[in-house]
Design brief:
The protein is built from four helices and no strands. By secondary structure, the chain is mainly α.
Amino acid sequence: MTSAAPPPPAPPAPDDRSPGGPGPGGSGDQWAAGGLALGGTLMVVYGLFAVLQGITAIADDEVYTSFGEYVFEFDLTAWGWIHLVVGVLVVAAGLGLFTGAAWARLVGAVVVGLALIANFMWLPYQPFWSIIMIVTGLFVLWSVFNYRSSRAA
């Protein structure tokens, strides 16, 4: 008697986005998975810097100077509180990304979006640092939106 072995399973399609699939955004996308870990790390570091920035602006208004006249000019103490609150939220969401929680990706995207807006409006006070943080925030958003968990929903 001869037994016929079952045929091997067909390989997944190149554009397969299912969990574990090799397609773009699947858990096989090493850039997105590594980007999410890096994004969480960057969020924690950025949040800590934002908290320190906020404390500095609250404690001493004379530390920062404006580079010209801008339409969206606010009191530095108000900016300090904005950076402090956004920084704490970004740290919390960044720590949540390490747990793999779906809520952390959603909350992370929202607070990073708020941080992007805050950094755009912070351009008159620290242009170089604001541009660095805007680019970093865009990378974090890309990594949060491109990652697909390999866990079953």
